[in-house]
Structure formats: structure tokens, C-alpha cells
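pinned: reference chain
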Amino acid sequence: MQNKSSPVLLGGKHTVVEFLCRTPERVSSVFIEKQKKGKDVSRIIGLCREGGIRYQFIPGRKFAEFELKNHQGFALRVFAKGYQETDRLLDLARTTDLPLVLVLDQVQDEGNLGTLARSLFALGGAGMVLPRNRTAPPGGLAQQAAAGAMSELPLARETNLTRLVRDCREKGFFTCYAGTGERCRNVFDQDIVWPVLLVLGNEEKGVRPGVARACETGLTIPMSRGFDSLNVAQAGAMLLVEMLRKKIAG
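pinned: its C-alpha cells
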């Protein structure tokens, strides 16, 4: 049985426009049939760009796989729970067992998104912030990997993650990112000031330079045997566990 908070796929030009105009915070992605052109396409693309919503052109055979009636070449994935305001997550971070907000900087794999949501929720984190563009949506694969956590964990979206980090620093958050560069310190030696904003980056490129520079410091996980790379979900889980250990130790 589908969880009531799982994303729902809906079709039809008017349905797509209605959601984009009235409740864009609930839309995770929009699909447009490749051969579609004209004013309807231009309007929908404009609404997506205005709301920072991911859209893509797909072939007609993909629409056939959706098994939607009267889709008219347009469909969207609706995140039933909807996104929260980022300020709400920041407020929660001052009261949760693990006073931490996790930011994913262009993580592309839905499985990684879901696994990180599961880890963060299990360890008592406040919530997760995703960029509005170039990010994995909280779709079916993410929901499956999250094993129910995504229906409970607050999610927010931001257009400019660099600005978010700077704002959080002004609000008293300790801002850090996962990396391996010169600015990165051993996480086991790093003193933590609560609450925390932790940024994890893209599977291949890591955290973008501008976002990293806005953070106070980088954190790295020491590794042996010349191995210098971990999956973002693995690295994130390790960092979160160490953060919780530090919080419990006081």
C-alpha cells in the first residue's frame, strides 16, 4: 500500500498548471512530452523556472509507462506532504535530540537522498534542505530507501545555498561541509558548537566551492590504506553518528 506521504504522479495540462500556480511547494518535478510546443509549454516552463521546480522533456513512450489517462503530454510528481519553510527547520534544530540541519548540495541519486533521510531521522536530526535545481527528487526510489523516514522528516528547498549558509552563520549556527581539502579538519578532533548546519555534496564533485567557502570549516573522515573516497550516504551517516556522539558526550 502506498504511503499517504509518497509522491503521486498526475497528468493533464490543467492539473499541471493548477499545481504550479497554487501549491508549487508540493511539486517535485514536471514532465513534458518532447514533441510538445506552443504557449502551453512556454507557460509551464515559465512557472517551473519561477518556482525553481525541476522539469524535463521525455519521449512519448515514457508517458505510456506512466499509465496516465488524458495526460495531454504533461505530467507532474506531487510530493503529498509538501515542503516546509526553512526557518521552521532552523527553529526545530534548537529543540531536537540532534540539533542539526542537513543540506544536500546537488546530490543526484534518489537512493542516497532516501538513505540520508533515514539516517538523519533515526539519529534525531531536525530536517533536510535541498536545492531547487539539479537535485534528486524525493520520489519513489528515495521513499523506498528512506523506509518511511521521509514521510516524517521535514524537508525544505532553497534556491541559493551559499546565502543559506551565510544566513545560518548570522543566526548562530556552526556551519560545516564534508570534504577532503585543505580547509577540512578531522571530524573526530573538531569541537562542535550547536546547532549545526552540515552540507554534503554531489556524488562526483562534492560541495561546490562557493558553498564550501561560506562555511566556517570543512570536516573530513580519516581513512587508511590509501582509500580517499566514500559514498555520500556512507560519509553522511558517519558524520551524523559522530555529531550525535559529541552531543551526548557534551
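why pinned: The mean pLDDT is 90. The chain has two domains: 7-79, 86-249.
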